[in-house]
Protein 1
Amino acid sequence: MIRWSFAQIADTSAQFCHELEARQINKGDRVLIWGTNSPEWVIAFFGCLLRGAVAVPLDRQSAPDFVARVQHQVSAKLLLADSEVTPPGAVNLPVIALVDLPALVKRHPTERVPAADTSPRDLVEIVFTSGTTAEPKGVCLTHENFLANLTPIETEIEKYRVWERFVHPIRFLNLLPLSHIFGQLMGIFVPLMLGGEVFFRDSLNTAETVETVRKNRISVLVLVPRMLEALRDRIGRDIIGRQGLESFRREFERAGSLGVLRRWWAFRRLHRRFGLKFWAFICGGASLDQETEEFWRRLGFAVLQGYGMTETASLISIPHPFKMVRRSIGKALPGQEVKLDSDNEILVRGPNVSRGYWGGIAADSIDSEGWLHTGDLGEIDSDGNVYFKGRKKDVIVLASGLKVFPDDLEQALRQQPEILDCAVIGIEGAHGPEPLAVLIQRDPSMSVDSAIARANQSLAPHQHIRRWALWPEMEFPRTPTTQKVLKRVIKERVPLLLSAGPSSGATTRASFILHEIARISGSPPERSDEEANLSTDLKLDSLGRVELLSAIEEHYQIDLDESAITTTTSLGEVERLIHAGNSETAHFPFPDWTQRWPITWLRLIVLYLVIPLARFMSRVAISGDEHLRNLAGPVLFVSNHITAIDPALILSALPARFRNRLAVAMIGEMLREWRSPPASVRWFSRARFRLQYLLVVSLFNVFPLPQQSGFRRSFNFAGESIDRGFNVLVFPEGQRTATGAMNPFMAGTGLLIAKLGVPVVPIRIDGLFPLKQRRQYFARPGQVSVSIGEPLLVDKDDDPVRIARELEKRVREL
């Protein structure tokens, strides 16, 4: 993890401003920013603001063709991207890799020189819609638009500034892209106002998100509703798994009548999983269903749903964190006007509303009186609280004149255990418009007839679902940024769905899995039936199965146990795992407390007491240490594995700057058994195992590297250790030698090396195996040797198997 202070951001932004000046990019010129969330992204944005250049943010998932179409419209003079890739049709466009930006601008002064003659109506950025069938339209946003939202928020924050000191700093984990206006608000501006901290993450894996929240003491999690739903499913299953379904239901029902503090106490164990500093979710980008909001509220968390559009510089309303009204999306921000028209469509007017689109295209959604027609339906109570009721274009008007809101039907359907997801659209029936429920089954073997009957019991007669169809995939098509369901795409396929009949739902559910298998293996799979074996039929090796697992988790936002997908797993079994939504993961202890004070100091004291003893017993001959003289950490050391004292020997052979901050990988299954012995183990042995665990992890900074499953979390922990400035020692054989000869290096080590992206130093221990056989604890001088090889830099895109083989060769040759 790389940390930037706001002062560093400001200085580097000023340097980028000077870089823009040197490139003759002036006020009003456009600059494309196409990349993942990062400090460099923020630097590029503020540098454009200082120069008066217009930022054109693009989602990191935007296709190169889309970027080229945007460039054709705006004629940008510079592109900042994750890598130096020029989109087609923009061959003359200069490109700067975002990761290289700080080094590139280092030569410039940090003096801030804002653009001259800046006016409220000057453009700040142009945000393009990600259309595929039509030419993208760029919403033009000015300083006036932004300030209309930021000023009232800042004014409200000032009222509570005196209390903020008790929870300072407020830490935000922002999972929304900065190319999204709401992502900018919560990822840049609000943390600045609070003097808080903001964390960025690429992965949307729910388990990793919860772990990030806990370990970094996050206060507020900013995400899209789809992600919050995935978190609800995971946490709900975990709670039910521990308490039992009936016990959880009783506790959950009782929580509805409790106050915030009593709800927090009732689910205190869950709050400890997130960390005691965490208290709120902030959602944006799409509508949040009531069931998910109520779930988190009853567990004692605050859920704030921001409402707005790109055309309103992000916000129209947002709930007050201390004055929330259930199911409300808040009151209109001061300075804005909000009302309903005769059809209950939400209209908004104020200085936050964009005046139009790039290229002089007028906003046809703004009427002659300046009211922006949002296309959303809502209600406003007597206190001014706004309630979202759905999209106007989605409302189904029956032949009787009665209106059916798809959101109401979808809420009823999602409460049924047979339904994994659903989308209700309007179709033309025999007697006029009627709703069609498009369903994704949780389990293809379960009938949905009873689910629909139960859903209809909670609906008014005119809302009843009379027609339904099964979606033939495991996920609806969604927008890449906000994860909204693309009902337009679903509607286009309705004739095919209806003609296929209700049994079609389970026929092609493996399409995503097969697509990923083809991508990983490099060739289309020869078989696609449920009995197809991942290893023998679909040609996936161990690394391929790990990559498939990661792709499934990222796509469906679920967590799967690595041990659940083995060499004998079939395609049908993978599908059933996905429909189950989760599996009990293999839990290994990852003791990050060993890398913090005072354990780090205690370890140093003990280390320098132990090392003289180790040198006296073995008197190791060290060679190749000259390869470390000009090497700066962090470094990954890899060594052959002979005995349990190998880490101590290597520690004694390394220079102090590497030795003092070294994390050692150890067999995860052994560590887990020490920390949580089986129930059959007697109490004395249990105490001995736990003491053994405590001493080993404390004194040698050990972390688990499992042999069977769970090693992806180990890879993450190794990366976190590197980020904290620790070096890492790994034994790629995965086990101690039984014959004295080296075992083959596991391919997973190659994957770890590629992910860490740090220099790799091979090490070889010789002369220890004969002592082990004779159980001899003292060695003559030079009888045991430690050889250190030349550092190796590995390309992160290189083949993990090839990396492992190359390192094995280097260790053998030492």
Note: The first strand starts at residue 30 and ends at 34.
Protein 2
Amino acid sequence: MRTAVSALDLRKPSSVDEALAMLRDDGPRVPMAGCTDVYVSLNFGTLTSARFLDIWGLSELRGIEEADGGLRIGALTTHAELWRSPLVLSRLPILAAACREVGGIQIQNRGTLAGNVANGSPAGDTLPVLAVADAVVVLRSADGERRVPFNGFYTGYRATVMRPDELIVAIEIPPVPDAQWFRKVGTRAAQAISKVVMAAVRSETPRVALGSVAATVVRLPQTEAALAAGAGIEEAQRVLMEEVTPIDDIRSTADYRRRVCANLLARWWDSSPMKLAS
């Protein structure tokens, strides 16, 4: 019986170096690991490529470790591994919270952090967290490695600065010593694509990021500046509602999203954010 994957040209490297050589010499190929988005796109006929690189078995791309007081997370680390990690829970609890909101447990066991990043959906639950954490995307090709600030990684809807011969090998996150906050708003409590998702860090220079309100995940520099300057929450909400430009789509209207964003901002500012473990 023929399936959506019957006609795929699939190669399976045994090491990262071999994978990078394949991308250089036999590309372009779409890297695939957990396949939680790839298979959906294949079944719906929205993914035009038929040439893939199966990197799921590359153990070099897994793992969570402390790095200079922050975190280095291997590209293939799954959402379940992240929310179960004592290191993530102690250093970046909002990332653990976001990973618990990704689909159901089956998706969390297969979906990877780099897959969420590379897929580039503006509704990706982990992306606002990485934005406020000032994460760095580590890209590697056969010619070398480079680090790209997460907030400069996306160039448009599902478009990034990553070259066809590069793989995401890790996500690096500097220390985030300040109180953190995360909320996802969807149609139900689980297995729902977000209508709005917000992550925030409260400090002398507050950081706020939103998903599902633009073509990419967005930081809110004007809202952040207003809060840092001592603006009241009503003034900060007014700035936010002018700063975000959501669209109407099948999940929500632009007006609803804008109002939810303003409500979340007030809830964060008045709440007791997540504290870091001592």
Note: The chain is about 35% helix and 25% strand.
